[in-house]
UniProtKB/TrEMBL annotation:
Belongs to the glycosyl hydrolase 47 family. This is alpha-1,2-Mannosidase. SUPFAM superfamilies: Seven-hairpin glycosidases. Residues 520-538 have a biased composition (Basic and acidic residues).
Length: 582
């Protein structure tokens, strides 16, 4: 009796203890796959297979299929980026034959040389290094050769850190390791999107040098003086680790630096280092300084992220497809630290990005969009279609769609954390629009689009490897059994390759408390920048690149949207670099 009572009391104590520890989960507990989802997942899985087989037929071993001409392109070293990038998706979808063939192919790639004159550290890291390591983990960690290959790639990538420089140069002379190129600037996305992959490479090779270098550059940025706490500008001096400009954005060129702050903490379970709190600062400062609601529109409830540059007049009311990953990232971090306000912002940002899809004549959102910011601020940006703007709260700016994933990426986080099927409905509408507009009938491939502001967009001869790595994966996972890439066990790199986290079930992450205004409420009066550009051509652009039809080398100089539109180049960017290009 006594014993029973004590045992009972102990059990009660144990249960309540474990319920404290386990109250923090990322995914909504008990989420299951509906019959409807099963059917939808199956359709996406089949379309992936057909589309990937078109790549195999016409472009096998090359980086990307040119879907209209049945040709190929080699912007990423020519090692077969689409093969390596597709491995984790093929595995997760249960296309075991495609995965096995891809692994065999990947084991035989000669990563010691390339016919490309320069290689992007960033792109090679997120596509190849992550693709190889993630395939190794998913396949049960049996194929040691995948790690050997990853090591060859990693040993080339670390030549980007010249001398004792804190930050690497992004452009690598792959074939000539002994004489690396120097550079006068590095972007924070390039220098700060390495730590997940390098950590895993160090873990599986037992050699700490990869992680040490990636940590050095990430820390240099995180410890530099931001424009606002946690909000670092885009361009850095690689020798000093100090900023060279004042342009703040969650879009291309900066994006995945912010993304990796919280994801690296999640990968390792480390909430003692600076990562979590630097990310908390980034989000809190973004809420204070970047979040705005569009003015002079019926859709003024939408929640947007602006860019910011004091030397260019302050807030720039423009957001991008690339920058739309932020909603999902804020949701993930919010769940980790149990911050409901951040979570609400993440959901709201995701909703605003989804609105660019649901409002668009093609059903697909654009590369970038603009709006009228707080206090009727346009900062040199023009709203062309006033009627559309009044109804939908944004106007198209760059109207291409190059099969990017970020809006569906955020919808994936919104769905997995809430279980609200409205997100699945949004994703299904997006998928049917993508399939209807992008499908190339004669070969089953999907092609980029020239203009999503149209009910029958013209296709472009472009289809990058992130279609297989990311876009198909996120769409599939929104409908798949939620135990696939369970967010309580995996973290996805910026190319959507899943890595196993070190401390599943860790529970709540320690983070400092911050006060932010509730979502939907306007910020106080904005501080103005020092200069108001009067002409559109002076408006600085975040870095979009990889857009087809530019006739500029991928990953090379000047491949920015600003150049395409004939706008002035950003200060301090002599040799232009790209951040997240997808
Ligand atoms: C913004 O413009 C609208 C419409 O022209 C006007 O009613 C409103 O007063 C303006 N707001 C500010 C802060 O200037
Ligand atoms: C979008 O399409 C409409 C209808 O064709 C057109 O009036 C408008 O100018 C377009 N917007 C942009 C930014 O291209």
């Amino acid at each position: 009796m006594m014993l029973g009572k004590t045992l009972g009391a102990t059990l009660v104590a144990l249960i309540s203890l474990s319920s404290i520890v386990s109250t923090v989960t990322i995914q909504k507990p008990g989420l299951t796959q509906s019959q409807l989802s099963k059917t939808r997942a199956k359709q996406i899985k089949a379309a992936y297979r057909t589309s990937y087989q078109a790549y195999l037929k016409y472009a096998t071993g090359h980086d990307a299929l040119l879907p209209l001409s049945d040709g190929f392109a080699d912007p990423f070293g020519g090692w077969g980026a689409s093969v390596v990038d597709s491995l984790s998706t093929s595995f997760l979808m249960g296309h075991r034959d495609l995965y096995d063939q891809g692994v065999e192919y990947s084991k035989r790639i000669d990563f010691t040389k390339t016919s490309s004159s320069s290689i992007s550290l960033f792109e090679t890291n997120i596509r190849y290094l992550a693709g190889l390591i993630s395939a190794y983990e998913l396949g049960g960690k049996k194929e040691q050769k995948l790690i050997d290959q990853a090591k060859v790639v990693g040993d080339h990538l670390i030549t980007g850190w010249l001398g004792t420089n804190p930050l690497p140069c992004n452009t690598l002379k792959w074939n000539n390791l002994a004489t690396p190129d120097s550079c006068d600037s590095s972007g924070i996305a390039e220098a700060g999107t390495l730590i997940l992959e390098m950590d895993r490479l160090s873990k599986y090779t037992g050699d700490q040098k990869y992680l040490q270098l990636a940590t050095k550059s990430m820390k240099a940025i995180a410890q530099s003086k931001g424009v606002f706490p946690g909000l670092f500008p885009q361009v850095y001096d690689p020798t000093t680790g100090q900023p060279k400009d004042d342009y703040v954005t969650w879009g291309g060129g900066s994006d995945s630096f912010f993304e990796y702050l919280i994801k690296y903490a999640y990968l390792t379970g480390d909430d003692k280092s600076i990562w979590v709190n630097t990310w908390v600062d980034s989000v809190a400062s973004s809420i204070q300084h970047l979040v705005e609601h569009p003015e002079q529109t019926q859709a003024s409830q939408l929640t947007y992220l602006t860019d910011y540059s004091a030397s260019n007049g302050g807030n720039l009311p423009r957001w991008s497809h690339l920058g739309c990953f932020a909603g999902g990232n804020w949701i993930l971090g919010a769940k980790m630290i149990g911050n409901d306000a951040f979570d609400a912002y993440g959901q709201a940002l995701t909703g605003a990005c989804a609105n660019t899809y649901t409002s668009s004549p093609s059903g697909i959102g654009p590369e970038s969009f603009v709006f009228i910011g707080q206090g009727n601020n346009t900062n040199g940006i023009t709203i062309n279609d006033a009627a559309f703007y009044r109804q939908h709260g944004f106007d198209f700016e760059v109207t291409q769609y190059i099969l990017r994933p970020e809006v569906m990426e955020s919808v994936f986080y919104a769905y997995r954390t809430t279980g609200d099927t409205k997100w699945q409905d949004i994703a299904w509408a997006a998928w049917t629009s993508i399939y209807r507009n992008c499908l190339v009938k004669q070969n089953g491939a999907l092609a980029a689009l020239a203009d999503v502001n149209s009910t029958s967009p013209t296709k472009l001869d472009d289809s990058e490897s992130f279609l297989y790595a990311e876009t198909f994966k996120y769409l599939y996972l929104i409908f798949a059994d939620p135990s696939k890439v369970d967010l309580d066990r995996y973290v996805l790199n910026t190319e959507a390759h899943p890595f196993e986290i070190d401390q599943p079930g860790k529970g709540g992450y320690a983070a400092k408390k911050v006060d932010v205004r509730p979502v939907g409420e306007k910020a106080g009066k904005k501080e103005n920048g020092v200069k108001k550009p009067s002409e559109t051509k002076d408006v600085p652009m975040p870095m979009f690149s990889g857009l087809p039809g530019l006739n500029l080398p991928l990953g090379g100089g000047g491949n920015t949207l600003g150049n395409v539109l004939g706008w002035t180049k950003r200060d301090g960017l002599k040799k232009h670099r790209r951040g997240k290009t997808h």
